Structures are given as structure tokens and as C-alpha cells.
Amino acid sequence: MDRCVKIICCYFGDRRNIHNTPANIIDFIKINIENEINIDNGINTDVILVNNDVGNIEANEFLNTYDGLKTKNGKIIVEARENKGGSFGSYYYSFLKYKDDYDYWFFCEDDVLIYEDGYMKEFVNHLNTSPELGFVALAPMSSSTYPTHSGGGCGLTSTEKFINSRGIEYITNTLNSFSPNLSYGELEANEVSFTNLYYSKNYHISNHPNFSPLCSNFNLHGGQKSHYKPEYANLKFIYKVGF
Q: What is the helix (H) or strand (E) element at residue 156, kind and residue range?
């Protein structure tokens, strides 16, 4: 039976804009976790909340209360680690620790709430439509200024394709190279490489053909608005970013 895991990187430090201050993100993550408890993913799915710990005691204690909680399709696991490498440090850390336990991996940031029942199974099904498809991206794919990649590194891959696209040695070395509190420019470079690496091994990445790569509140996010295309109008919204 296929085993899927969703990795959600949680960060309770200062944010780049006023809409995601630590207090606000706690409120949003509470809603996000309730969604993870009740949504039907259509496939066995555990959720790993990775706390990139910045010493926010209130947030740490709140997050730890969810460890071991049952969901509709699995359970919640809470991990804590030093804040090295941002989301991508969390992704690589979790993969190395749990790579033998799961077949599919959905990587996600803490301000992204996916509310569509069955989306996880749909992403798995789409990934398996082609051996050359390495990653199913949730967000718009950017290729104008930077090499082609998925926004935020959010989306689904398999254990096999993730390893084939970069190798265990690369994952280990990259994780060990991260320093605390990376600059936004450094995080941006990691965001690009995280999904662009699939191309180096002759994979490609794509969005799901039935779901909009834009969040339902894309008009509130300049980066998403810039990716709008008329053909998205007939696709279903399945997630939102922030409140």
C-alpha cells in the first residue's frame, strides 16, 4: 500500500511582510492543522510539522501539542530542528530521516492551506502518468528570470525520483552546508535549485492539469498575480496562501 507524507515547514520568526508576523502565523497554522486533521487525502498520508526553531516558546509549546494526533488518513508528527536552510533545510532533514518510511512526499510551506479533498491522490496519480515526470508542482512555475522551478518548492515527488534527481550524498552535503538565518537571496537560490535539479537528470516538472497553480486569493499576492494566464480560469482552485 502506498505511503505518503506531507512535510510542512513551520517558522515562527520575523516575516517579510506584516501579514505573517509570528502571532498571525500561529493563528493561521492552527487553522491549517485543523484542515490537515479533517481533510480526506484519498491516500494514506502522515503530516510532519517541522519546527525551524527560533526560540518562540509559545509557538513551540503550541505545535508540540499536535504530536501523535490522528488524522483522517494517518497521524501528525512534530519535529524540531535548528533554523538552518529555511524550508529547504526542513525538507532535506525530513527526507533523510524518514526516506525508508514513505513512497511519496508533498513539500509545503506553513502559510499554504490546501483544502481540496482527494488532492494528494490526484497528485500521486498525475506523477505516475510518466516516468519522466519528476515533480508535480502546486504553485506557478517560474522560468523567466530564473531557471525553471516551482514556487516555494511546494509539490509532490516520489522517494525514487527525489533520490535519482540529486542523490543521498548531495542531500546530506547540502543539509550540512546550511547556516542559520540565511538571507532571502540565499533562500531564493535554494528554492530554485530544489525543483530545477530534476532537469539535470532528464526529468521534468509540471502542474496538475485539473487544478489552478494559483491560490484562490492570488489577487492579494503580487508574485502570484504576475503568473496569471487566461487558461487558468477553467481550472479549480485548491489552496490559499495566508488569510
A: strand 155-158
* Helix %, strand %, coil % of the chain (to 5): 40, 25, 35
- What is the residue whose three cell numbers read 527560533? 54
What was the pLDDT predicted at 192?
92
The residue ranges of every structural domain in the chain are 4-241
User: ∠ at Cα 171 (197, 14), nearest 5°?
Assistant: 90
pLDDT tens for each residue of 228-238: 999 998 999 99
Burial class (CB in 10 A: 0-12, 13-18, 19+), 222: exposed
Do the Cβ atoms of 230 and 161 come closer than 8 Å?
Answer: no
Question: Which tens digit of pLDDT belongs to each residue from 123-145?
Answer: 999 999 999 999 999 999 876 67
Instruction: State the maximum Cα–Cα separation within the chain, in Å, rounded to a whole number.
Output: 45
Which of these, 115, 111, 90, lies nearest to 27 by C-alpha position? 111
Per-residue model confidence (pLDDT) at position 132: 98
Count CB atoms within 10 A of the CB of residue 158: 20
Flag whether pLDDT at 198 surpasses 60.
yes
pTM, 2 dp: 0.95
* Separation between Cα atoms, residue 51 and residue 83, nearest integer Å: 8
**Candidates 3.40.50, 3.90.550, 3.90.1570, 3.30.60; correct CATH number of 4-241?**
3.90.550
Q: Contact at 8 Å (CB) between 149 and 107? A: no
